[in-house]
Amino acid sequence: MVTRIQVSGDRPYDVLVGRDLAVSLPSLISGASRAAVLFAAPLRAQALLVAEAASVPAVMIEVPDAEKGKSVEVAARCWDELGAQNFTRTDVVIGVGGGAVTDLAGYVAASWLRGVRWVPVSTSLLGMVDAAVGGKTGVNIAAGKNLVGAFHPPAGVLCDLGSLRTLPAEDLVAGLAEVVKCGFIADPTILDLIENDPDAATDPDAPVLRELVERAIRVKAEVVGVDLKESGLREILNYGHTLGHAIEKREKYTWKHGHAVSVGLIFAAALARLAGRLDEATAARHRSVLDALGLPTRYDAEAWPALLSAMRVDKKTRAATLRFVVLDGLAKPGILAGPDEELLEQAYAEVAE
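Above: the chain sequence. Below: its structure as tokens.
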């Protein structure tokens, strides 16, 4: 069974969720003469299967695993390879892997010849519910995460649930932080499903996990279909990410994205409660849901000055004013702009370890 979730907008496309989805690839890249397949070493075998399924000559480009691959230097190496292979506008880039690889592949495609087709084949839970959907592509630089990139919707997205069986348990759980985020900003049924059976939520073969994936994708699809370029509504998808990105930067991207977002969710909930915008029970529910999944909810108490400095260059900052996505109630996201530093420090005290 394959579920199709449409992402609307100027360039609509489908997100396919199911198993053994590589057979769907030729229809997404019809007319392409060649494919460049970007992948990290651990997924070489899967990348070769995807290349074979594409049914066009493929250029295999291996990139560093995880966040190490999301750099301008790696992107430049990919461009050099496309140039050496005389890649044209009719050709296609395919990214096989987690969110870091698909972010890189999308940016390489967006910038090559000012934009060629691309398809993310997402193999991680985080990639399926977040990075692969929405058309945001990019790389990290020293100043921060995802500060260089482009909005470039894919031709389609393949979310093969079979790949979750080979995903390390820690990575699977980390990806659930983005699912929890979707529960708090838009679909509380996600939270109910996790609270009713946390073990099933982390079981790759459980119907519960599939439902969580599909619900999270629908939340994102609805938002980005209305607002591709983060000019309004799409900003709510950054709930928990302002502090989360700062933690990732401080840890030199050795922390998993989902772990950092998990801590960021606790911080955002505390900030909203202290600002008088969120009730105590919903704020407390953040910690209970994340704890049930085994996700981290605390971070180094001594890190606050560095984290505050990092947040000042976050993409959501406008005219030197810090902006945070907060909740005014369950599934009622809003923006808190320019909070006092004292309030921020009080909120951080609730995650400080």
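The chain has two domains: 3-166, 169-349.
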